Amino acid sequence: MNKVLVTGGAGYIGSHTCIELLHSGVDVVVVDNLSNSNLKALERVESITGKSITFYEVDIRNVEEMDKVFVAHSFYAVIHFAGLKAVGESVAQPLKYFDNNIYGTQVLLQTMKKHEIFNLVFSSSATVYGEPASVPITEGFPLSAVNPYGRSKLVIEDMLRDLNVSDSRWNAILLRYFNPAGAHVSGLIGEDPQDIPNNLMPYISQVAVGKLEYLSVYGGDYDTHDGTGVRDYIHVVDLAKGHLCALEKLKSNPGVVPYNLGTGIGYSVLDMLAAFEQAAECKIPYQIVDRRAGDTAICYADVSLTKADLGWQAVLGIEEMTGDGWRWQSQNPKGYED
Ligand code: NAD
Ligand code: WQD
Predict the structure, then answer these.
(1) Tell me, which fold does domain 3-181+234-262 have in CATH?
(2) Largest CA distance in the chain
(3) How do the residues of the chain divide into helix, strand and coil, expressed in percent and rounded to 5?
(4) Hey, which of 105, 281, 313, 322 would disulfide with 276, CB 3.0 to 4.6 Å?
(5) Could you give the residue ranges of the DSSP H alpha helices within the chain?
(6) pLDDT digits (tens, 9 = 90+) for 180-209
(7) pLDDT in tens, 75-126
C-alpha cells in the first residue's frame, strides 16, 4: 500500500485525499491535466503535510504519457478522481463527457492492465441512483442515468464489473459520493470553481464573500420540512478519509463493490444557508425561484454497509462544513488566483 497513483489529485476532493494519504505514510503520485485545478493546491498540500508529491501534468487520455508514469513507478492501487463533473455542461456537450470521462478511464484501465495493477478506487456519485423512489438510498437501489455526466459514471461502473468478470484479479471500490462540502481546516485548500458555481455550497460561499449578489434557491414548494430541496452534505475531509478505508479494503480482493459516502443526514437548502450565515457572521441574500430541471426533492444515503464493511463513518457535521468552507473562501476570495 506504499505507493498510490491519484488521477485528478490537484482537484477539490483529490487534493484533500492527498493530505490524508501523505499523513498515513502513503507515497503519492499525481496525474492531472489541470483542466479544472491549480498546481498551487498540491504545493499547499505539501506545505500542510511537510511531504512531497510526484506530479505529472498529463491527460489520462494520453496513452504514451500514461504508460511512462506506470513504467516509472510501481503502484499498489490507483485512486481515480480525474473527470469532468458539470451536469449542465454534460447535457450541452455529451461527447466531451464521453471522451474525457469514459475514454479517459478506458486508457487508464488499459495501462493498469498492461502493468498488472488491478486495484482501483473510483469516484462514483449518488447521481447513479437517478431519481430514487425513496430515502435513505442503499447501494442495492436501481441505477439509472438522468444526464450524460451520470451516464459516464454508470458506464464506468459497468466497465469495472465487466473487467472483474473477465479476470477476477480486478478489484474496484466504487465510492458513491453524496454532496461534498467544506474544506481543509487550515483554510489553505478548498473548492475553487473556474466559472460561476453550479453547486450550492460554493455558490453560497461566493455570495457570502461578495463575489455573487444573491443565491437563487431552486424551488420552495418541495414536500420537505421547509419546501426546499434536501441533500446529504458530507465534509470533504471525511470523504477523503473514506479513500484510505477503501485502499485497506482492496487488500481482501473484494471484487467490484459500491459504497455510499454520505452522512445519512439530510439538510435543506435553507438549513445550509442558515448554518453558513452563522459561520460567516453575515446575512446571505436569497430569492426563491423555480425548481431546477432534473432536481429531486430529497436525497440522502444509507451508510450502514459502508460502516460495516469499510469501518468508515462521517464524523464532521454541518458546523465544520460551513465553518471550514468559510475559512477557505474568506482567506482566498479569488481561490488559488490570490
Ligand atoms: P475537480 O474538478 O475539482 O477535480 C477533478 C480533477 O481531474 C481536476 O483537477 C481536473 O483538472 C482533473 N482532470 C479532469 N479531466 C482530466 C483528464 N482527462 N486528465 C487528467 N486530469 C483530468 O472535481 P472534484 O469535485 O474533486 O471531483 C473529483 C471526482 O469526484 C470526479 O470524478 C467527480 O465526477 C466525482 N464526484 C464529485 C462530486 C462533487 O460534487 N464534487 C460528487 C460526486 C462525484
Ligand atoms: C444541492 C441543492 C439544488 C444551487 C450535484 C450533481 C451530483 C453530484 C453532486 C457529482 C439542490 C439547490 C443548488 C443553487 C439551489 N455531483 N441549489 N441553488 O444537484 O444535489 O448534486 O452535485 O457527481 O451528480 O447532480 O447538488 O449542490 O447542485 O444542489 O437552490 O444555486 O441545492 O436545487 O436542492 P445536487 P447541488
Answers:
(1) Rossmann fold (3.40.50)
(2) 56
(3) 40, 20, 40
(4) 322
(5) 12-23, 39-49, 63-72, 87-92, 94-97, 104-114, 148-166, 200-208, 236-250, 269-280, 304-310, 318-331
(6) 999 999 999 999 999 999 999 999 999 999
(7) 999 999 999 999 999 999 999 999 999 999 999 999 999 999 999 999 999 9
Question: For residue 202, which amino acid is it?
Answer: P
What pTM, to 2 d.p., does this model score?
0.99
pLDDT at 293: 93
The residues, any chain, with a CB within 8 Å of residue 249's CB and separated by 6 or more, are: 173, 257, 309, 310
Give the Å distances, CA to CA, from 62 to 11, 56, 122: 19, 12, 19
Q: Are 292 and 219 in contact (CB under 8 A)?
A: yes
| Residue 25 φ then ψ, to 5° | 85, 10
Give how far the C-alpha of residue 225 lies from the chain's centroid of Cα atoms, to the nearest Å: 27
C-alpha Rg value of the chain to the nearest Å: 19
User: Minimum-distance ligand to the CA of 30?
Assistant: 1
Q: Residue 257 phi/psi, 5° resolution? A: -130, 130
Which protein residue's CA is at the shortest distance from atom 15 of ligand 1?
Answer: 83
Active site residue 336: no
Residue type, 325: G
Residue 231 CA to ligand 2 centre (angstroms): 8
- Give the residue, by CA position, lying nearest to ligand 2 atom 26: 199
Q: Which ligand is nearest the CA of 191, by number? A: 1
Residues with CB under 6 A from ligand 1: 8, 10-14, 32-37, 59-61, 81-85, 100, 104, 123, 125, 177, 180, 199
Q: Which residue out of 12, 97, 129, 149 is catalytically annotated?
A: 149
CA distance 293 to 287: 17
Break the chain into its structural domains and give their ranges. Answer: 3-181+234-262
